[in-house]
């Protein structure tokens, strides 16, 4: 799914640290950077550049270009590593907006990664869960989700059920041409699938608890 717009947003958490990353993603990412007076370097190589922000303001930055589809979003991406500080970052983002970018909403870079097949829905949810994690247990579960662990388990379960269905249908449609039904093995496969589903339910319940921060009441 090709996007016609180019997003700009802060890829790092808070702009109050030492370095902030401003990300551009979309077909005009490199064009917008050129409007700021700089030329991106070779793909995936950090280069030192001075951004022209307008009204005489400028910012020294490390610039890295990541052409699509080999980027986080699957689109052409340029990242600007600039000095952190809320007002400084706002000026950099503002210059990108004036050059033609549109502001990225929460999770919009991840959404584009999903739309371009760079992430599965499960992995996209895992990224959001990592950002929102408040406990070590929640973070560990989010990392498993982002790694696609659940998706692989679902694929394995589905493959087992489809194979079992094919055997049962063949037995019903062509009883004379296939081996005798192994009902006991079928039962074992279904029992194993049931155990997997039960483990998922337990894991889901544990995940819900891990995301809830305990409340402590001091009484007396």
Percent in strands? 15-25%
Class per helix and strand makeup: alpha+beta
Largest β-sheet summary: 6 strands, mixed
Task: Return the CATH architecture of the largest domain.
Answer: 2-Layer Sandwich
Average pLDDT, all residues: 87
Briefly, what CATH class of the largest domain? Alpha Beta
N-end to C-end Cα span: 60 Å
Your description of this structure?
The structure is a single chain. The protein has two domains: 7-115, Probable tRNA modification gtpase trme, domain 1 (Gyrase A, domain 2), CATH 3.30.1360; 121-211, tRNA modification GTPase MnmE domain 2 (Four Helix Bundle (Hemerythrin (Met), subunit A), Up-down Bundle), CATH 1.20.120.430. A hairpin with an 8-residue loop joins strand 1 and strand 2 (19-25). It is built from seven helices and six strands. The protein is elongated, with a radius of gyration of 25 Å. Helix 4 (121-132) packs antiparallel against helix 5. The longest helix is centred in the last third of the chain and has 29 residues, at 183-211. Strands 3-4-5-2-1-6 form a six-stranded mixed beta sheet. It is an alpha+beta fold and 220 residues long. The chain has helices at residues 29-35, 86-98, 108-115, 121-132, 136-146, 149-173, 183-211; strands at residues 7-10, 19-25, 47-54, 57-66, 77-83, 102-103.
């Amino acid at each position: 799914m090709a996007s016609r717009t180019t997003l700009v947003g802060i890829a790092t958490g808070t702009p109050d640290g030492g370095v902030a990353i401003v990300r551009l993603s979309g077909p005009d990412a490199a064009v917008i950077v050129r409007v700021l007076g700089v030329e991106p370097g070779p793909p995936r190589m950090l280069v030192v550049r001075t951004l022209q922000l307008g009204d005489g303001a400028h910012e020294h930055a490390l610039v890295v270009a990541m052409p699509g589809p080999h980027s986080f979003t699957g689109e052409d991406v340029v990242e600007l590593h600039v000095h952190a500080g809320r007002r400084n970052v706002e000026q950099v983002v503002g210059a990108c907006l004036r050059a033609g970018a549109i502001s990225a909403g929460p999770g919009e870079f991840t959404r584009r990664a999903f739309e371009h097949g760079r992430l599965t829905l499960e992995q996209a949810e895992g990224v959001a869960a990592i950002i929102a994690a408040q406990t070590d247990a929640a973070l560990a579960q989010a990392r498993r989700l982002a790694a696609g662990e659940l998706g692989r388990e679902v694929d394995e379960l589905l493959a087992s059920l489809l194979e079992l269905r094919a055997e049962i249908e063949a037995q019903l449609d062509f009883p004379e041409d296939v081996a005798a039904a192994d009902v006991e093995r079928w039962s074992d496969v279904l029992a194993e699938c049931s155990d997997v589903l039960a483990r998922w339910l337990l894991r889901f319940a544990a995940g819900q608890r891990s995301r809830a921060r305990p409340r402590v009441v001091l009484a007396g």
